[in-house]
Amino acid sequence: MKASDGDGKMPLHFHIHIQTKSAWGLLETLTRVMHDLNLEIVDHRTSHTRGLDPLILNDIFVKDGDVSYASNLIIQAARLF
């Protein structure tokens, strides 16, 4: 939802942390799955551990396009204006 809607709701945000072994096409697969779930990727950070068999670490921050919620603080602030 847009902030201009004035209904006191905001989109739900998630932080997804994934640890996996390296695989071909991992980034493309993650991006496709997020799109299929109607999650907008806000930020995506990838790193890896050292060694012969490293772990791939993905931190993905997403915004849900289907779910929004009303916070009491947002509703109270909206009443001030």
Question: In words, what does this structure look like?
Answer:
This protein is α+β, with helices and mostly antiparallel strands and 81 residues long. It has one domain (3-80): ACT domain (Alpha-Beta Plaits). 25% of the residues lie in helices and 48% in strands. The chain has helices at 26-36, 72-80, and strands at 9-21, 39-48, 55-70. A three-stranded antiparallel β-sheet has the order 1-3-2. It is elongated and about 60 Å long. It starts with 8 loop residues before the first strand and ends with a helix.
CATH superfamily: ACT domain
Spatial extent as radius of gyration:
17 Å
> What does the average pLDDT come to?
84
> How big a fraction of the residues is strand?
over 45%
Low-pLDDT parts are none
Overall spatial form: elongated
The first-level CATH class name? Alpha Beta
Number of domains: 1
Q: Report the end-to-end length measured between terminal Cα atoms.
A: 19 Å
- Numbering strands along the chain, what is their spatial order in the largest sheet? 1-3-2
Helix content: 10-25%
Count of DSSP H/I helices: 2
Q: How many DSSP E strands?
A: 3
CATH architecture annotation name: 2-Layer Sandwich
Q: Helix- and strand-based class? A: alpha+beta
Order of helix and strand elements from N to C terminus: EHEEH
Biggest beta sheet attributes? 3 strands, antiparallel
What fold name goes in the CATH topology slot? Alpha-Beta Plaits
